[in-house]
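Next comes one such specimen:
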Amino acid sequence: MGAKQTKNRKIERTIKGLKLYEDVIDTETHDELVKFIDEQLVRGRKNELIGSTYTPIPPKWDSRKQGREMLQYGTYTHSNRVYDHEIFVEDMPDILNVLVDELVSFGVFACDECDRDEKKKNSFRPESCTVNIYEKGQWLPPHVDNPNFSRPFCTVSLCADEYTMFGRGIVWPEGSVPDDVHDKASEGEEYRVLCKKNSVIVLGGDAGDVYEHAVLPVRAERRISLTFRKRDFNKENLKKRTELTESVRREYRAKRKEVYESIPKEPEPETERERIARERLERKKEKERRKIETLEKKKTEAETLAKRAEEKALANEKKEPKAKTHKECLPVPEGLLLTKSEHGKALRTSTDTPNDFETLSSSMNGSEKVNKMPGDV
């Protein structure tokens, strides 16, 4: 295993502190690294690695392709934050230590102004490695690496040739990446580097502290990157670097916020739970509306009835007495109006008096009796 000793190794200097070395490792080293990483992934998925050495794709990032599987050695980071306590990871394995030794020997972590011999003397040795396993379509948003790590740091590319973007205040849609990001430059983008398989990209100076970098959506079926960094515990250096990176981060966040607020947002699709809650609220509001409407209607009807009753009473008070009819004005003959006692006496008198027929019969019978002579039959 070893670095590829090629005289025509390409170095690009476009941003202060940015360097790119091609063909740094040979095919044999590449294949050994990929095999080791695959074995570690299998063990990590089975929870056979210490602590949080293996990190699966966070569900909230998986749907938008922002996440990727990770292996972390030496230092644990999450969302560009460094965790010193409570979260443990394994130390860097031998195969990665051998690679680091060769990168240090090559002068990857030395100052730009030093010659080759001085680079070996002034180099520091990374003790942390973050392995990112990208599948097709996965990407990494624009960011400035955590200031707790010394500069420079480097990334080794395996399996495929993919682009890394650099800029100051790169603007991508919130939580996503532009569909045409591979075809045209993004707002805030200043430079784009093709990190070929077996290449090493080094970020120091402005490239590491001032410029953001982002990994464009991977076009190949797979890409693996190994980022080697060293923790910086020098308080003076850490304070200076933190002030610088936080300053540019605030500036870039403000720029993105301004752009995002100026773009009309499409409504997000409604979830089933949100739909149920919305319909329940609508039914409740409709029920309250009908209740209020019914109460108002009853109140109006009561007021109308009360008003009509008042008007009727007032009208009755103002109404003139009704004139009597001719029937009501006719005189009653004397003797026809009887008191109650007189009426009862009249009834008894009429009952006791025989009728005309009975009187006549009695009269006739009496006449016959008088005129009848003895001897008459």
Remarks:
- Confidence is low (pLDDT under 50) at residues 366-377.
